[in-house]
Amino acid sequence: MCLYGVYRWVNIINKNQNKNVVAVDACIAEEVQILNERGIKTIGCCCGHGRAGQIVEYQNGFGIWKEREYPPHVLIAQESINIARQLGYNPYPYFSADGKDNGVSIMPLKSGCLTELDCKKWHQSNSVEYKRDLGIIK
Q1: What residues contact residue 128 under an 8 Å CB cut-off, 6+ apart?
Q2: pLDDT number for residue 17
Q3: Closest CA to 8 of 34, 27, 26, 32
């Protein structure tokens, strides 16, 4: 798992996005790239930055919320569920604060790490400085 602000470029196939290439958390970028290459339309993703299970607070148009930080995951289009299952993933509906899933599913990833210690190990093993906001790395 990489620290916040450490990314790699990923080519995506979701034509509903306004870009063909997006910055993805570096530690999950390879897996997200492979998912797109195999036909899964990704919508968004996050590695969790070593905070899986921790309580986070955020605010949106529906109020202030507290929830547990997700482990590394990707949001996928409904039409990609069968492909994801064939690849051994287990997507499930992703409900937004208004209680709707909007045809989006969330899917735990096989890469990334869960704790801050895992994050440090990822940076070390990939020879990436253990520092936030490095931007796009190779």
Answers
A1: 2, 6, 26, 122, 134, 137
A2: 81
A3: 26
pLDDT for residue 1: 60
Report the DSSP pairing between strands 104-108 and 92-93: antiparallel
Specify whether the CB–CB gap between 112 and 28 falls below 8 A: yes
Rounded Cα distance, 95 and 125, in Å: 35
pTM for this model (two decimals): 0.90
Q: Give the model's confidence band at 98: pLDDT under 50 very low, under 70 low, under 90 confident, else very high.
A: confident
**Cβ neighbours of residue 101 under 8 Å, at least 6 residues apart?**
93, 94, 95
